[in-house]
Write a structure and sequence with these properties.
Blueprint: E1 12-16, E2 19-23, H1 55-69, E3 73-78, H2 85-105, H3 115-119, H4 130-192, H5 198-203, H6 210-227, E4 249-254, H7 257-268, E5 285-287, H8 291-294, H9 298-301, H10 306-317, H11 338-350, H12 355-365, H13 369-376, E6 382-386, H14 387-391, H15 393-399, E7 406-410, H16 416-423, E8 426-429, H17 430-447, H18 453-478, E9 487-490, H19 492-499, H20 506-516, H21 518-533, E10 537-538, E11 547-552, E12 555-559, H22 568-582, E13 589-595, E14 602-608, H23 612-621, E15 624-629, H24 635-642, E16 660-666
Parallel strand pairs: 3-15, 3-16, 4-6, 4-7, 5-6, 7-15
Antiparallel strand pairs: 1-2, 2-16, 8-14, 9-13, 10-11, 11-12, 13-14
């Protein structure tokens, strides 16, 4: 067992099996009430997939378990590469989830069931009679039994339906393959017996094969069965029960999707990932990614730019079906695909799969993996997502990720500070603001008589602000003749003063852009107007599949457009991001105004200086936050950058008293004496 703290300022060093483990201090500022100790503890982890875990793996699993159990805790755990830290983190966190479930079944009262009791402010119930406490325990146990029974039945039904759907799709795919092979072989035979004379070609009746005709009809029926689905089918409109959602959710983030794929591989090797069939410990996992990674519609995915993919997906997902033109602009992987979408969601929850598996399955099932993953998120015990999707508040909200009562784990956390900076950075060029100004002017002129007074007022403010940005950047280019610096740094307030927009309420404008979704409307209309004004583009504009007629010599050729040329869609979102940044506190960041080397273009860029101002929201909303990495040293500097309130030397606020800091660092599995440098 580990030595316990004798003072919050002491630090201990201990050695376990020749492994150096530095047990650093647990520092916390306290309220008037006593700090509530964790109710669940675990020293052994029988669910570890291998026979005997190393001592440092056991210690890391204990630390993760304890940090998850202690509410409002920031854990910083360092374990070198090659020590199996990802597997240890998974086993430690999911063992805690399973123990909480079992505690509820025993009728125990947990800290997340009563906030006052968890905070230590509720009066002690020691004076309550024994029969009342026994009744309360029995009631909680009965409720937990019922919820667990229903949740277990739902999970079993979900896995059974997913397996049945997989079998059905496999049979349908094989049948389609056989029918196509039969039709193809018949066609080949017909070509082989075609007469070679003009007379026979004119008068000889074509070979007839009733089997081939039947195969064609069967193939058409088979494909039609997939396409003709009704969104209003009662059999598949299964309402979600809030009570059946997981009480605790583990959100594990990493920098790249390839790293998350490795996490899925580690999960599959454990009982939590389905290694043991029908194990009660098995969890539901969901991998979350953006449209650019999960879109399987070739007409949208081939647009290239992530901004264009998002815009086009939103347009197609909101398209309506009319009697005259069936499924106008509707996505074939989303429209009339409710049953397939539900089956894809259930398949994702039935067994762990990464985004590549999900995208491949979506292509086979002809259902959208992006929306299936989003719908699976609330029911998942374990959520896997990249840093950027969780760190940025608007992205997190749009995905439906809820941090309340969730344990957030950042794997490979040595990149976390840079990820926070990148998530909230913003940049816009002179060409982009000119495009946005043109789109805004065109949009307002077209819909001015239809817009409400409030919409028109905000759009006028946005137009004036964009015009001011254009003037400042044009002035920056004009400074070339005066040998002015290529870059200059200014504060947010000084930049707004320079633009003459210091009276604009950026908070109100940012809220309008977010709630009204007007940026999407402006970008879509601007793209359509641009296409309509370009006479060299053929066909009716639908945003996809356009061709440009170019003359080469004396001939004309159809050329596919470059999806990244003049990305006006991304220009609108770049300006929106800058406005969001300008609503920050003046001390949170700085504005850089710069021009290129040629002196023909300029840009304005926001850089975040205070990562803690953004990361603090995650720490405050989540139950606990755990940072894990191979090299996090110096840990005090990392903590001061992300949550300085927990640093005793600089903390001056009372808010830090609600959080605890736990740090742990260990050596490598291989003892130092066994290493031979070359």
């Amino acid at each position: 067992m580990l030595a316990r703290h004798t003072s919050p300022r002491e630090s201990h060093a201990l050695f376990i099996n020749n492994t150096h483990i530095t047990h650093t201090r647990l520092h916390t500022r306290r309220r008037a009430h006593v700090f509530v100790m964790p109710r669940l503890r675990r020293t052994e982890f029988p669910t570890f997939p291998y026979a005997t875990p190393y001592a440092i793996q056991i210690e890391l699993m204990r630390r993760v378990y304890d940090a998850a159990e202690r509410s409002k805790t920031l854990g910083v755990f360092e374990s070198p590469t090659g020590t199996g830290k990802t597997l240890s983190v998974l086993v430690g966190a999911l063992s805690w989830v399973d123990d909480r479930r079992k505690a509820r079944l025993r009728g125990e009262k947990l800290d997340d069931e009563d906030e006052d009791d968890a905070a230590g402010t509720k009066p002690s119930d020691t004076n309550e009679p024994d029969w009342l406490r026994e009744y309360d325990t029995k009631r909680r146990k009965t409720d937990a039994d019922e919820v667990e029974r229903r949740r277990g039945a739902r999970r079993a039904e979900l896995r059974a339906r997913a397996k049945a759907a997989e079998t059905r799709v496999t049979l349908k795919t094989n049948a389609e393959k056989r029918l196509r092979e039969k039709i193809e072989s018949t066609s080949t035979t017909q070509r082989a017996i075609d007469p070679h004379t003009a007379e026979e070609n004119e008068f000889l009746v074509d070979a007839y094969d009733s089997g081939a005709e039947g195969a064609r009809e069967d193939l058409r029926a088979l494909l039609r069965d997939d396409e003709e689905e009704d969104d209003d089918e009662d059999d598949f409109s299964r309402d979600e029960d809030e009570a059946l959602r997981p009480a605790q959710q583990i959100i594990l983030c990493s920098r790249t999707h390839s790293q998350l794929t490795q996490v899925i591989g580690e999960l599959r090797s454990t009982v939590f990932g389905g290694k043991v069939a029908k194990a009660e410990e098995q969890v539901a996992a969901a991998a979350i990614a953006g449209r650019a990674q999960l879109c399987v519609n070739p007409a949208v995915k081939n647009l290239g730019s992530a901004a264009r993919i998002n815009e086009r997906c939103l347009e197609m997902s909101k398209s309506k079906t009319t009697a005259k033109d069936k499924a106008v602009k509707a996505c074939p992987f989303l429209s009339k695909r409710r049953r397939a979408l539900l089956e894809l969601k259930e398949a994702a929850l039935a067994k762990p799969m990464d985004i590549e598996d999900l995208a491949k399955l979506g292509t086979t099932r002809k259902a959208c993996p992006y929306y299936a993953a989003r719908s699976a998120l609330p029911e998942a015990d374990l959520v896997l997502m990249p840093y950027a999707s969780l760190l940025h508040a608007d992205t997190r909200e749009s995905l439906g990720v809820k941090l309340e009562n969730a344990v957030v784990i950042f794997d490979e956390a040595h990149n976390l500070v840079d990820a926070v900076y990148n998530s909230y950075g913003a940049s816009v060029s002179l060409e982009q603001v000119r495009d946005v100004l043109d789109m805004l002017t065109t949009y307002v002129d077209r819909f001015e008589t239809r817009l409400s007074a409030s919409n028109l007022r905000y759009l006028k403010v946005l137009t004036n602000l964009t015009r001011a940005f254009v003037n400042v950047l044009q002035k920056e280019i004009a400074e070339v003749k005066k040998s002015a610096p290529e870059k200059r740094l200014t504060s947010l307030n000084d930049f707004l003063f320079e633009c003459g927009q210091d009276t604009v309420n950026m908070f109100s404008l940012r809220r309008y852009l977010k709630e009204s979704k007007v940026a999407h409307k402006i970008a879509s209309y601007g793209e359509r107007v641009r296409a309509g004004h370009d006479a060299s583009w053929g066909g009716d504009w639908d945003g996809v599949g356009q061709v440009k007629i170019e003359a080469v010599g004396g001939s004309k050729f159809a050329v596919a457009p470059d999806p990244n040329a003049n990305p006006r869609v991304s220009a609108v979102h770049a300006l929106t991001s800058l406005i969001d940044a300008l609503a920050s506190a003046d001390t949170d960041g700085r504005i850089i105004v710069e021009r290129d080397e040629s002196g023909t273009s300029a840009s304005v860029r926001f850089i975040l200086l205070d990562a803690a101002s953004r990361f603090k929201r995650v720490v405050q909303q989540a139950r606990s936050v755990i940072l894990v990495g191979g090299t996090l040293a110096p840990i005090p500097e990392l903590v001061s950058q992300l949550f300085p309130e927990l640093n005793a030397a600089t903390s001056k606020t009372v808010e830090s008293s609600a959080h605890a800091l736990k740090m742990f660092s260990c050596g490598h599995i291989i003892p130092r004496d066994n290493l031979l440098p070359l």
